[in-house]
Amino acid sequence: MHADPSNPAHLWYVCVPCLLARVQAEEQKRRAEADKLAALTALEKRSKEFLKEKEEKKALEMKIRAMQARRSSLRAWAAS
After folding, report:
1. Tens digits of per-residue pLDDT, 14-38?
2. Binning pLDDT at 50, 70 and 90, where does residue 79 land?
3. For a disulfide at 3, which of 10, 59, 64, 67, Cβ 3.0-4.6 Å?
């Protein structure tokens, strides 16, 4: 029998299975929110790492191009 909130005589009554189900649902919701936050945090961290790696790759490619240009100019100088 469930409590009838409109009936003052039933105010003392607590449906334990209902209360337990509600607590479990709230805990499940908290865990899901925590998992979601953890996933978003991990995704943000990985995104930052990816952008950093992309910038480092670009810088290395620029260095390689500069070295190749110097090598080409040295070859041309040596050949003359």
Report:
1. 688 888 999 999 999 999 999 999 9
2. confident
3. 10
Is pTM, for the whole model, over 0.70? no
Residues 6+ apart with CB under 8 A from 3: 10, 11, 13, 14, 15
For 40-52, b/e burial (b = at least 16 CB within 10 A) is: eeeeeeeeeeeee
Contact (Cβ atoms closer than 8 angstroms) between residue 14 and residue 3: yes
Cα dist. 66→33, 51, 63, 71 in Å? 49, 23, 5, 9
HEC string of 31-71?
Answer: HHHHHHHHHHHHHHHHHHHHHHHHHHHHHHHHHHHHHHHHH
